[in-house]
Amino acid sequence: MSNPFGDYNNQPVKSYSNGGGSIEDDVDYYEKEIERCMQESLDSTERSKRNLANSEQVGAKTAQDLLEQREKLERTEKNLDEIHRTTQQTQRSLNSLKSLFGGYFKNKFSKKPAEQPNDVSVPQSKSASHLSDTVSGMGSGSCSTSGSSGPTLSDSSMNAIKGSRWEAMDQQINDNLHGMSSQLSNLKNLGQALGREVEDQNQMLDRIQTKADRNDTIVRSQDHQMKKLLGYKGVDKPQDTSAFGSKK
């Protein structure tokens, strides 16, 4: 009986090396593959660092725009407060005119109208100061990271490439990863500071809207009072601004 496994005895062993060349060729092939992979990793971290740097620049520009917008909103709110103080003075003048038209004795012993308290000054913002400090910290590189990235290779692999060009490439990759970690931390802090500043400015916009509506109501009311003093018709409602046509 023939050996059923005899057909395989004389077959050559399959080679898993590159092209079935010599050991030196195989070593050279794998060295090139290792260097190619490390170069791709190095290029990838370099691109990521550049993209993160661009994101930091965009974030810093957004922060600067928000701080400039805050200055405009603060000036607007202060102007509205000044307008309100002016309308209070105008109301006192109107009350004096009413006294003259209504008769001296009628108003001689009348109580002086209570003055409205002045508006509270625009509150100082902690979010703007924090945002400015965050942007300054990004520029100076003072932002600290919660933890540095570890080595990309194991101890045995690092010992194997010690003294070779791959060691320098691996060190550059580690440096890039550490820089990316710092950039991501900067972006996180900047995002949180931007969020707080936006919320603070939303509150400012609400206050500005309230003060603008209040001033508009007061001005309409004073316009109504002045028209009545001057004897214009059709001024039953303060909202009526079309009654300049005829006098009584």
TrEMBL record:
PROSITE patterns: T_SNARE. Residues 40-49 have a biased composition (Basic and acidic residues). Residues 134-157 have a biased composition (Low complexity). One of its GO terms (biological process) is protein transport. SMART domains: t_SNARE (SM00397). Keywords: Coiled coil, Protein transport, Transport. Residues 35-97, 167-229 form the T-SNARE coiled-coil homology domain. CDD domains: SNARE_SNAP29C (cd15856), SNARE_SNAP29N (cd15887). Belongs to the SNAP-25 family. PANTHER family: SYNAPTOSOMAL ASSOCIATED PROTEIN, SYNAPTOSOMAL-ASSOCIATED PROTEIN 29. This is t-SNARE coiled-coil homology domain-containing protein. The lineage of its organism: Eukaryota, Metazoa, Ecdysozoa, Nematoda, Chromadorea.
